[in-house]
Every structure is written in C-alpha cells, then in structure tokens.
Design goal:
Blueprint lengths: L2 E6 L9 H17 L7 E3 L2 E4 L5 H8 L5 E7 L6 H16 L1
Antiparallel strand pairs: 1-3, 1-4, 2-3
Length: 98
C-alpha cells in the first residue's frame, strides 16, 4: 500500500461553518503529520488523500489519532478499468507472497 485515505467524521452543522471545520481539520492533519515528513495532503470529495508513501500504514495510524478523523485506510492507487484493478490486486498478492 502506498497511499492513505482519511475519512473525517460528520462535519454537517447548522449554519455556514462547515468550511471552517474542514479547514481546521486540514490544518490539524498537516501539523500532526508534518512530524512524520508528510508535506502534502489533498482534499477531494470530503476525504483527504496522502501519497505516495512507503510508510502508508504508519501514516494512517498517526492520522487516525487526529480529532475529527473517524477512519483511515492504507490504499493502493491504480487505474479505473477492471483489467488495471485486477493487475494491481495480483501484483499486491504476489508481493505479499514473496
């Protein structure tokens, strides 16, 4: 696994303060993970993405400690086609078997 997906908790609140909470969470993630050499965190579609990293499992564990994060997942990035997904899965299984 070479990437990390970070899922925040529910940020839907009354009023127009959702963006403020998202910005605070992003700042807290950057501060916590900077200690581990993370320099970039992308935010898309309500999730945060980090990668590629050789230490994705460790970064996922550290990100899970940040208040407001409910789930983290080390992930393998690949193409969208069924063939590309199958090839990536087979490579992952072969790497674990070696």
């Amino acid at each position: 696994m070479d990437h990390v997906i970070i899922r925040p908790g529910e940020l839907t609140l009354k009023g127009n303060n959702r963006r403020w909470f998202e910005r605070i969470l992003h700042q807290n993630l950057k501060a916590a993970l900077a200690l581990h050499g993370v320099t970039g965190i992308d935010r898309r579609h309500g999730r945060y993405y980090i990668g590629p990293r050789e230490d994705a499992h460790r970064i996922a564990r550290e990100a899970a400690k940040v208040f407001g994060v409910v789930h983290t997942s080390p992930a393998l990035r690949c193409g969208r086609s069924e063939e590309e997904i199958s090839e990536a899965a087979l490579r992952r299984v072969a790497d674990r078997s070696a």
